Amino acid sequence: MVESYYAIKKGLPAAVALSRQQPLDCLTGAIQQPGSCSGGHFVYVAQYSQTAKYASAEAYKYAGKQEVCKTNVAVTAEKFVNSYKVYDKVTPQQLYTILTRHPVAVNIDASATEFINYADGLLKFTCGPQPTHAVLLVGYEVDPTTKAAYWLVKNSWSDQWGSTGYGKIEITDTFDGCHMYTNVVELF
Q1: Which domains does the chain have, with CATH numbers?
Q2: Of 142, 112, 135, whose CA–CA distance to 125 is shortest?
């Protein structure tokens, strides 16, 4: 969410790889999210990003666990988030409208085996009772052959998930995207 927003705001041709470890390590005080290595909430990252100066992913490498905040790393991105908005509940049409401005962070239940082992195609899976993961919603498309509509999401797990880190989640009137329509976060 932060990398895409930064690239769009600065008019860059592609997202800059900003540190994912930095907010994990440096969230403090009222915005700290205990256990953020395993399901932390992106609202805290949005709050942190209002005052943060981000290092690059190369300068502040991902460790996969919370460590001590490093303050002696070179800054790649100065403060660039002015505010954010959390949409408690949206419809697919409202989410599409938000997405026309820029990519947004959405909740999802990522506990289903189909999601964990997703490789390609249209992702259809049974949802658990609550969201467990955040993904970046980057697009909306319609398959030209099947006419099936789907959301295009970028997962942070790795380029080995889905198609180089991206997945297609079906849009239907009866499927809520496994909680995608709750707690949507948009940066400004």
Answers
A1: 2-77 (3.90.70.10), 84-187 (3.90.70.10)
A2: 112
